[in-house]
Amino acid sequence: MFCKNCGAPMKDGAKFCPKCGARQEAADQGRMEQASTAAPSPKKPDKPKKKFPIWLLIFPICLVIGILAALMAPKVLDAISGKGGTETEIAEDEDKNWDSGKKEDDEPEKKEETEASETETSAAETTPAQTAAETTAEQTTAAAPETTSAWLLDGSPDLTGYARVGIVQSGSTSNIEQENNQNGPEMAVDGDEVTSWQEGVEGPGIGETIYYKLDQEQPITYLTFKLGNWRNDKYFYGNNRPRTLTITLDDYSFQITFPAEQREYVVQVDPPYPASYIEYRIDDVYKGSSYDDTCIAELGMYCKVGE
């Protein structure tokens, strides 16, 4: 290396000339530039940029949604089920219901205690006259007649000592109109089995009635029946005849079913039932072979003579 100023030889890398003392920066700079030009330093590779993790954004959003859903779920369920009010209100309602039920349970006990007390007081205040009156009432109840019943007899009883009751009025819900025959309700109580009452509606006459008013209230014991048209066999089997009748004595009603044979039937009422009105209603019939009219030839109502 030589000094740029005086040309004196120098050590490589010296900054000042040992002879003239000149600074050797330019030389150093030139060498550096030459060295830089001759051997450029390699560039360091760029560091890859780090990507932002997306889960850090999704996780908070999901967390917020979950919290909101947990808070809203009870209200949504209440709206769907139709229940209103908070848990506190429901608990208060249950307490009220329990208190109400408890009061209701307590009230009968108090009422029973009050009634028991009143009964004891009443028993203590009962006078001999009241006791006698109660005894008389019990005896009267015991002496009351048994429940009336009615049934169809197997045969014909001996009606000696019994008489037919008097009839002042008869009627029916319908009767057939014929030019040469009378078929009204009076024909069933005229004592002639050849004549008969014949209902006059279309069909077998189910529900049609025949009724009678008596001259006075009588204790009815026996009822007799000749059912159907008894003019002859042709009309007996050709017309309908009652199979089942509902019979009413004033306010006492009962139902009797009769056999199909042509004979007089007797129904007994026991104990005898006092009545001033008797009604017969057709509930069922034996069908005739030729006609659809239901007939009753004769009816009898009997009470014991002298009663």
UniProtKB/TrEMBL annotation:
Keywords on record: Membrane, Transmembrane, Transmembrane helix
Pfam families documented for this protein: NADase_transloc, Zn_Ribbon_1
InterPro entries, alphabetized: Galactose-bd-like_sf, NADase_transloc, Zinc_ribbon_dom
Domain NAD glycohydrolase translocation F5/8 type C intervals: 170-299
Transmembrane segments: 52-73
Composition-biased stretches (Basic and acidic residues): 97-114
UniProt keyword annotation of Transmembrane present: yes
Region described as Disordered: spans on this chain: 22-48, 85-155
Zinc-ribbon domain span: 2-23
Biased composition (Low complexity): 119-150
Matching NCBIfam families: NADase_discoid (NF047619)
Name by which UniProt lists this protein: Zinc-ribbon domain-containing protein
Organism: Enterocloster asparagiformis
Lineage per the UniProt record: Bacteria, Bacillati, Bacillota, Clostridia, Lachnospirales
